[in-house]
Amino acid sequence: MARILITSGPTRQYIDPVRFLSNASSGRMGCSLAAAAIQAGHDVIIISGPVEIEYPPQAQVEYVVTTDEMLQAAEKLFPLCHGVIGVAAPCDYKPQHTATSKISKTGHPISLLLMETPDIIATLGSKKTPRQWAVGFALETDDPRFRALRKMETKNCDLMVLNSPSAIYSHQNEVEVFNSRGKILAQLRGPKTELGQQIFNLIEKHLIRNPDFQ
Amino acid sequence: MARILITSGPTRQYIDPVRFLSNASSGRMGCSLAAAAIQAGHDVIIISGPVEIEYPPQAQVEYVVTTDEMLQAAEKLFPLCHGVIGVAAPCDYKPQHTATSKISKTGHPISLLLMETPDIIATLGSKKTPRQWAVGFALETDDPRFRALRKMETKNCDLMVLNSPSAIYSHQNEVEVFNSRGKILAQLRGPKTELGQQIFNLIEKHLIRNPDFQ
């Protein structure tokens, strides 16, 4: 039995009290991975951005809004866990300033300076012990396989799941799973509920049951 | 029996294929107003941005993503309707350019120029015939009543509902309803499902059954 941390859903970076930067991540893949892990008898802790779906009641869920909040929660919880599945899509840019009042339209354009947010999986990857594992997710529109492998390297992950860009609009997904040597372990396609189970089976086989990580 | 157009939910303005500007509008108030209107025997057409909730099956629903798409659909459908309830929270800024590829992090800030989008209710308000009515919704953090009345005037609305900023995060809402002369018709508070019914009762009484609009 392993204790598994799952980051899930989007984060939001507010420009003013009403408007924010985000993405269409729904939390469905995180939910499906959590369900598969619980089904296999593991303990699951989810750190989730704002989503409408309901996570399995057996999971401990901590809700956050911003990327900094997600990182803070992840840094606190990861040392208690055997591994992390980083399926969240954290907002990786935030406005330099958040206006305290709703910005009123004036008829003129406004200029926004966006700063990069900290990388959650890269931060956890840099801190993991030899017994801990990390699974990253990548979504790229250009050179997807090359970029996924670069992310595996720079984020110090043990498996990388490459999502198709079409995934974020849909209940369906199409993924490739790479091990840390860049080998394609599987090419999977189907409803997110089923893919979560299949991806979790690979995590179970290659990481959770792998003596290197026990 | 009236044919009623309801705009509902948020819109999104994409910065690149993954990231967008939006707000936390859930479509719940739109759904609740639609249910009340259908219950009262009216025909309902909903133009909705991306939401997770399900609208009443008796409503005709047209889904859009951006503010320009919502405006285009509204301009097409409004001439067929007796009135419009503008409860959507359209994104009122859009990036000057949308990148065709996902923007990669470089370690440096990026600068974004945001242009104002067209105002949907103001556009419909400027085109409505003497027999058509328009209900606007406002959400303001500063000088809310003053700004709500200014919006009534500039958008040529017949009723204006002033939302509390706390509404967008929650299933609860707290609103004030003004008529076109600026009189407060009602101060309401409660779950969005119930408020939709109460607001719709005011629309029914002051607009749908009003001989000026028949």
Describe this structure in words.
The structure is a homodimer of 214-residue chains. Chain A has 214 residues and is an alpha/beta fold. Helix content of chain A is 28%, strand content 30%. Chain A is built from 5 helices and 12 strands. Chain A has helices spanning 28-39, 67-77, 120-127, 144-154, 192-208, and strands at residues 3-8, 13-14, 19-23, 43-48, 60-63, 83-86, 93-95, 110-116, 133-139, 159-163, 172-179, 184-191. In chain A, the strands form 3 sheets. An 8-stranded mixed sheet of chain A has the order 5-4-1-6-9-10-11-12, with helices on both faces. The first copy, chain A, has a two-stranded antiparallel sheet with strand order 2-3. The first copy, chain A, has a two-stranded antiparallel ribbon with strand order 7-8. In chain A, strand 10 (159-163) and strand 11 (172-179) form a beta hairpin. In chain A, helix 1 (28-39) crosses helix 5. The longest helix of chain A has 17 residues, at 192-208. Chain A is globular. Chain A starts with a strand and ends in a 6-residue tail after the last helix. In chain A, 45% of the residues are buried. The interface between A and B is large, with 41 and 42 residues. Strand 8 of chain A pairs antiparallel with strand 8 of chain B, so a sheet runs across the interface.
Overview features:
homodimer, two-stranded antiparallel sheet, 8-stranded mixed sheet, 28% helix, alpha/beta, 214 residues
Strand order of the largest sheet of chain A: 5-4-1-6-9-10-11-12
- Give the overall shape of chain A, derived from the CA principal axes: globular
Largest interface, C-beta within 8 A: A-B, 41 and 42 residues
Overall pLDDT metric of chain A:
94
What Rg of chain A do the Cα atoms give?
17 Å
How many β-strand runs of chain A? 12
